[in-house]
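== Folding task for one protein ==

=== Format: two labelled lines per protein ===

==== Paired sequence and structure tokens ====
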Amino acid sequence: METVGRFAPSPSGRMHLGNLACSLIAWLSAKAAGGKIVLRIEDLDADRCPRHYADALEHDLRWLGLVWDEGGSVGGQHGPYYQSERSHIYAKAYRKLEQMGITYPCFCSRSQLHAASAPHRSDGQVVYAGTCRALTPEQVSQKIVAIGRLPAMRLRVPDETLSYIDGHLGEYSEYLPTECGDFILRRFDGVYAYQLAVVVDDAAMEVTQVVRGADLASSTPRQLLLYRLLNLPAPRFYHIPLLLAADGRRLSKRDGDDSLENLQKKYTAEEIIGKLAFAYGLNPENIPRSPKSLIADFDWSKIPKQDICLPKDLF
């Protein structure tokens, strides 16, 4: 089977170093296996992700030499490649889950979900307490009238431990009721949730390899559950260590941490690629490299498993 990797950016601003690293390693992993790359624009929240950011992202990827094979504005046989244009596809998958009797309405607000009494995972993430799980149809109708809007919809997770073997980090397990919890499939405004959308999209676009940051490793059990329920083939997952700022903070678009817009003023594309590859153990020296020049020596065993704190003098 041909290796099919993907870029799946959420274009809410210019890419930062963490986004670039993920794109580079996803591209190298697929190309080293003789495969291809799909570009999918994850603009579910269309207000936060205007099209001009997606267009800028495509320009940036080309400038860096990370050219994709299908998707984005290039198109292809599995389009559309913008999630904002795929709601009808997610609706069909959602109806299958609804017909199984494993979805239910949820009226909890964000502040309620983050209340001190809510259960939390070891990493601080809130686990849904099942507050709305047992509402009767009459109670649901009353709440809709009381709050004046439709509820969000959650998936009722089974009582099981779900495990998978990460291609880079090894075995990962979650006991779904307490470490995952019932999760959102559709928001109260009708927008389908990330977990459902990415599962449907990766299957439809025949993606076989997902490379992304280690902060998304905990999303994988939820997605594997959805693959199983929808009878879809699951890809192999590889989670890479996160890049941290010199002070130990996670990089973010909001903080403007080494955005590509700023980096382009100081470095060439080959210098940026070379520095990123050096940080991840894929370039033996801090010297300029093109993505193509890194393919022949790419090996997952070279990439660290712990988060990487960027030296102050690297960028």
